[in-house]
Every structure is written in C-alpha cells, then in structure tokens.
Design brief:
The protein is α+β, with helices and mostly antiparallel strands. The protein has 2 domains: 32 residues, no CATH class; 62 residues, Four Helix Bundle (Hemerythrin (Met), subunit A) (Up-down Bundle). A 3-stranded antiparallel sheet has the order 1-3-2, with no helix packed on it. Strand 2 and strand 3 form a beta hairpin.
Length: 95
C-alpha cells in the first residue's frame, strides 16, 4: 500500500496494522516518518494569532519596539515578523 493512501475504518489490516486516527479515517503510518514537533507547531500558531491581532489593531506593519514601518520585503519573507532586526534570523526570535 502506498504511503499516501488512506485506509477507511475497518480496513486496518490493509494498512499493515499501523494506523493513526484523524477526521473519521485511519491513515497508514510510515514507521520512519518523524513525529511532528508539536512545540514548534504551537509556536507557529501563536505567531499567526499575534499577527492577526496586529492586523486587527493596525500595528501589523510597524516594528513593535522602534515604531518604524516594517519593510515590505520583511513581511513578505516572514508574515509573522514583529521586528525588522530579527525577521531574517532562522527562527525570527531574538537570541
């Protein structure tokens, strides 16, 4: 069975006995596939929620520390950037 195929409930044997539930289906799981980094996903989600709040209050386009406008290139590269001086670092957060 291909890794991208989805097994419906009751077809677990066709999936090699390895399964993961999600949205009413059981999907085949590749045992070599790394587990998702839930902490990183949580951080990304929090960054998106902050960006949305900044859009709502009109501060999205402004550096949160200096008050200067964030360059369009910075926001294009990292839409959740809050500061111009750290937007191009690997994780977008101060060291």
């Amino acid at each position: 069975m291909a890794d991208d195929q989805v097994c419906l409930a009751g077809e677990q044997r066709a999936c090699g006995g390895r399964s993961r539930r999600g949205r009413g289906t059981i999907a085949a799981v590749d045992p070599e596939e790394p587990e998702p980094d839930l902490d990183a996903i949580g951080t990304d989600l929090a960054d998106v929620e902050i960006a949305l709040a900044r859009l709502d209050d009109g501060s999205y386009w402004v550096d949160e520390l200096t008050g200067k406008p964030l360059p369009e290139a910075t926001l294009t590269a990292r839409p959740t950037a809050r500061r111009a001086d750290i937007a191009d670092t690997a994780d977008g957060h101060p060291a």
